[in-house]
């Protein structure tokens, strides 16, 4: 918790950090120390709330994952160590769900990045109706996912939906694994590309017009200006957009729940966890799955920050 | 604390007036029959209790989740629970519902159909009272099929012949990966003389009948009789397909009858019913029953009143109005001779015959896992490999019975 709260409470300006790296902490003046203590006092309530609403449930889930605990057999509850993890990790259902989740995550985020960048450029350059354009692009993101998923489901159901009508008669795409997976990805992309675009639009605002004009004077083509000037300068925004979307996509639930409910090999790890917790009422196995998802999310976040580390805000000291 | 308690009591209804409110949680009924039953019983109690009817979510899974969440939290504001026929064993094993004993038990059993009673019983004890029941019939179009098929083989032949003539020929059945698929399999395996679990529900007993059942499902899915959306279809999609005129047969519950009457009067003229098709020509089909059982929560503050109220809610008068207004087949045997019911339900004799030879789904606390193992393995039906699919189901049920392993 504290690792999250600390930078939020005392955000060191990038210049200050580079200077501070050398001198000893003991050299802080009394005033600075007092200010730091005040900072801690001010963020303490937030830390307490965070512990209550996130650390406790996570800790409890870890505790449950070490138990054999089936709600239907209260008498059989016992400590079983890591055997629930063994059961999950040796189950083909977990690995099927895991690969499906990774596939959906990788493909949908990649498509969203490209489309989102396109939309961001359009929104950035639009001169007329700027507000209307930005609002209309954001409409899909404003619709509740479950509601959107229901309309996709009806649209792809033969005899009910207008999209199914476009297919050759007898095709029911949601009943087969690959078509269903692509439709889930389509629903995800439709829904969250605007979010990606919004984050990238913020990144575009970081690119100074003068730099672009200078590149133009030097004879850079539009593509060169985009790849050599805009993308490097936008790297922090791209990192944030990719990180947020990847973490989100890995936890995909609503679209799959409505479109196929995980049938025909389209279930994600979240669907697997939900089924084991709420349908099978197996708190031990279900919690083990939840903790594994949590660990995966942690690994994704760590990898991203390591890979793009130099682009993280405030990390670049040379320029 | 006393202040808080009095505020809570005030919210809970008329505790102060000495007239307890019994909370009845049941499936959402649009006909108004359930609300009327609650009102009638409140009235009949002579001021000793009043019943408040609370609607659960529409889908069975949602209903079970809401009940389980509240019961796991020992919520004492639940009194009478409407349980799907597959939940009594599970709720009893988790000690969430009370056993029926003494006079209440005698009244619950008296005149009640035998098969629905089996769903309320776990380890020889009665845990609920059957409220309504339900079973499937074969619905067909008289203009396409002058004599209804008696067996699955005959039905597939007829559908094939209709397909060759370019006429509507689909057999509408629940092929989606959900409970309905398990029901289909359960009906076929029982009709073939077998069962999913052994008599004591301790291990799978699939064997040859299961292989035959799985084979029939696969054959239908790979024949011209299969609707292209078969792997995604549930009861309501079946109804819609039949009403739109693309199908010749439909295996479904009696709610399709009033629906066809209202939605397609032209087709309704040729809409007929017949007993569920057999697997063997000389062994009657054993369709699986559905329905609701009423149980009393273990955490209820007024258990004695709750037993009494549950019996009132399913008495003759209330079951009749639920049948006439809500279309729910009753569990009291005598009502099947009631002229008003026979008039509204022209197929009441066939429903009764089906109920008397009906089968139940495996009675075990881990029924949900068993059902998921079955529906997951048999989905999509066209991918079934009878021998190996049945082996897989057996392995997964073994795990489920020990409440071990991950469910798909």
TrEMBL record, chain A:
The keyword NADP does not apply. Residues 98-304 form the ABC transmembrane type-1 domain. Keywords: Membrane, Transmembrane, Transmembrane helix, Transport. It is found in: Cell membrane; Membrane. Its main location: membrane. It is a multi-pass membrane protein. It comes from the Bacteria. It holds the Pfam family BPD_transp_1. Residues 1-28 are annotated as: Disordered. The chain crosses the membrane at residues 38-63, 97-123, 135-155, 180-206, 281-305. Residues 16-28 have a biased composition (Basic and acidic residues). Belongs to the binding-protein-dependent transport system permease family. This is Sugar ABC transporter permease. The lineage of its organism: Bacteria, Bacillati, Actinomycetota, Actinomycetes, Kitasatosporales.
């Amino acid at each position: 918790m504290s690792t999250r709260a600390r930078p939020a409470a005392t955000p060191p300006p990038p210049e200050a950090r580079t200077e501070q790296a050398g001198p000893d902490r003991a050299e802080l003046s009394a005033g600075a120390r007092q200010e730091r203590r005040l900072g801690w006092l001010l963020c303490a309530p937030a830390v307490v709330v965070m512990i209550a609403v996130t650390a406790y449930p996570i800790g409890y889930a870890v505790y449950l994952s070490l138990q054999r605990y089936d709600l239907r057999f209260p008498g059989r509850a016992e400590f079983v160590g890591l055997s629930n993890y063994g059961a999950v990790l040796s189950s083909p259902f977990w690995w099927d769900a895991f690969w499906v989740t990774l596939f959906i995550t990788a493909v949908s985020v990649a498509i969203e990045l490209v489309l989102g960048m396109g939309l961001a450029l359009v929104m950035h350059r639009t001169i007329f109706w700027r507000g209307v354009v930005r609002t209309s692009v954001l409409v899909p993101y404003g619709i509740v996912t479950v509601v959107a998923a229901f309309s996709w489901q009806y649209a792809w159901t033969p005899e009910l939906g207008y999209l199914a009508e476009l297919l050759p008669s007898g095709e029911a795409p949601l009943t087969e694994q690959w078509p269903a997976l692509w439709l889930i990805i389509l629903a995800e992309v439709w829904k969250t590309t605007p979010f990606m675009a919004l984050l990238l639009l913020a990144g575009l605002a970081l690119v100074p017009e003068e730099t672009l004009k200078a590149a133009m004077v030097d004879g850079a083509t539009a593509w060169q200006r985009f790849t050599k000037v805009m993308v490097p300068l936008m790297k922090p925004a791209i990192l944030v957009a990719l990180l947020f979307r990847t973490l989100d996509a890995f936890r995909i639930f609503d679209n799959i729940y409505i479109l196929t409910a995980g049938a025909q090999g389209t279930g994600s790890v979240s669907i697997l966890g939900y089924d084991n917790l709420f349908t099978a009422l197996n708190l031990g196995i279900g919690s083990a799955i939840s903790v594994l998802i949590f660990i995966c999310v942690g690994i994704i976040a760590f990898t991203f920050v390591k890979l793009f580390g130099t682009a993280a805000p405030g990390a670049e000291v040379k320029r | 604390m006393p202040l808080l308690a009095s505020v809570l009591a005030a919210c809970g209804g008329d505790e102060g007036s000495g007239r307890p409110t019994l909370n009845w949680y049941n499936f959402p009924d649009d006909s108004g029959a359930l609300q009327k039953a609650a009102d009638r019983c409140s009235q009949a109690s002579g001021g000793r209790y009043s019943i408040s009817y609370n609607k659960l979510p529409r889908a069975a899974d949602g209903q079970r989740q809401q009940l389980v969440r509240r019961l796991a939290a020992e919520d004492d504001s639940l009194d009478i629970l409407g349980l799907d026929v597959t939940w009594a064993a599970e709720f009893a094993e988790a000690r969430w519902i009370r056993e029926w004993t003494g006079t209440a038990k005698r009244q619950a059993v008296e005149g009640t159909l035998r098969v629905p009673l089996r769903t309320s019983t776990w380890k020889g004890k009665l845990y609920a009272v059957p409220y309504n029941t339900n079973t499937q019939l074969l619905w067909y179009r008289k203009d396409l099929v002058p004599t209804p098929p008696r067996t699955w083989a005959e039905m597939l032949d007829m559908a094939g012949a209709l397909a060759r003539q370019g006429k509507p020929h689909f057999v509408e059945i629940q092929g989606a990966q959900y409970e309905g698929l398990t029901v289909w399999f359960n009906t076929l395996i029982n009709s073939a003389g077998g069962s999913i679990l052994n008599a004591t529900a301790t291990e799978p007993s699939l064997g040859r009948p299961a292989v035959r059942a799985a084979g029939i499902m696969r054959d239908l899915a790979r024949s011209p009789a299969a609707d292209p959306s078969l792997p995604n279809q549930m009861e309501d999609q079946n109804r819609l397909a039949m009403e739109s005129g693309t199908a010749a047969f439909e295996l479904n519950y009696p709610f399709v009858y009033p629906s066809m009457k209202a939605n397609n009067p032209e087709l309704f003229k040729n809409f007929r019913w017949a007993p569920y098709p057999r697997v063997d020509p000389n062994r009657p089909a054993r369709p699986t029953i559905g329905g609701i059982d009423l149980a009393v929560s273990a955490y209820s503050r007024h258990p004695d009143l709750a037993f009494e109220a549950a019996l009132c809610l399913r008495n003759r008068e209330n079951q009749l109005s639920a049948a006439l207004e809500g279309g729910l087949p009753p569990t009291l045997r005598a009502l099947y001779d009631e002229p008003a019911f026979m008039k509204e339900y022209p197929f009441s004799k066939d429903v009764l015959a089906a109920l008397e030879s009906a089968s139940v789904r495996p009675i075990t606390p881990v029924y949900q896992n068993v059902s998921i193992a079955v529906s997951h393995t048999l989905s999509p039906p066209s991918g079934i490999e009878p021998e190996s699919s049945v082996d897989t189901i057996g392995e997964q049920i073994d795990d489920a019975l020990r409440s071990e392993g991950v469910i798909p």
